[in-house]
Amino acid sequence: MTQQKSYLDSTRDAYDAIAPIYDDFNAGNDHEIWLGEVLLPELEKHGLTTGRALDVGCGTGRAFGPLRRRGWSVDGCDVSPGMIAQARDKHRNSFEGLYVADARELPRFVGAPYDLVLALNDVVNYLTEDGDLERCFRGVARNLAPGGLVCFDANNLIVYEQDWLAGTGETMGERGWDWKGLTEEAAPGRVFEAEVGGRGIESSVHCQRHWTRPSIETAMKAAGLVDIVVLGQRGEGPELALDGNAADALHYKLIYIATGA
Q: Does residue 219 belong to any structural domain of this protein?
């Protein structure tokens, strides 16, 4: 097993390495369906309309299109300069504010306050050190408008049992990019590692931590965020759905919707 790096070094280096192929690597994750047709309608049930959104861990900006098509103004930040460079290239004809920023040290951005703050695609799981969640959530709260909503996801342990243990892995994409689990044993709250490599990219190690629901909710409360609802996510593509009774064995992700205290 590789020596664990800090969150900043680990996540930045891993995503800088895959930035050129990130969109192809994740082609099966359709944001128009996931965000546009599933998450946003759920948020609208809790009073969300349109306004200004901040996408924390925005990557190449895959959430920008579904939001902008529905009338949102969007800013984004990511710890990886490589991912922000890709986002700037893709969205150079639009008006998003794009920033390189550590999710644990979010400033109050120029575009704040935001009516919606998103942290999707495992952002909180890449925060691996004690205290990281609270630091991230305090930065989110710092940028949230009164009455605004926060939406983020967190992986259940089943994800790590299936995809992050030694001996697990798969070839992803037509160009032969490989995902290989490196962690010997699954346990709640531990850090997991997996290696990504293949044609045209430098091999890199991704580190994530499984955060239990009590740990997440404690950090939210300490940062001044209040749970509205926690939903279980299941299925893929057009079959993707959210359930009100979240269960570790059934749902690979939990979706948290919260607001400021």
A: yes
pLDDT digits (tens, 9 = 90+) for 45-83: 999 999 999 999 999 999 999 999 999 999 999 999 999
Give 259's contacts (C-beta < 8 A, 6+ positions apart): 144, 147, 148, 149, 150, 225, 226, 228
Residues near 32 by beta carbon (within 8 Å), at least 6 away in sequence: 65, 66
CA atoms in the 13 A half-sphere facing the CB of 160: 27
Q: How many domains does the chain have?
A: 1
Any idea of the CA torsion for 79, 83, 88, 89, to the nearest 10 degrees? 170
Distance CA 64, CA 96 (A): 8
CATH number of the domain that residue 62 is part of: 3.40.50.150
Q: Is 244 exposed, middle or buried (0-12, 13-18, 19+ CB in 10 A)?
A: exposed
Alpha-helix residue ranges (DSSP H) falling in 110-202: 132-143, 157-163
Residue 184 within a domain: no
Q: Which residues pair with 255 in a beta bridge?
A: 153, 231
CA–CA distance, 204 with 166 (Å, rounded to integer): 16
Where does the pLDDT of residue 160 fall: very low under 50, low under 70, confident under 90, or very high at 90 and above? very high
Token pair, residue 91, equals 């969205």
Q: Which domain holds residue 68?
A: 7-155+212-260
**CA angle (128, 232, 237) in 5-degree steps:** 95
Contacts for 130 with CB less than 8 Å, ≥ 6 apart: none
> What is the value of pTM for the model shown?
0.93
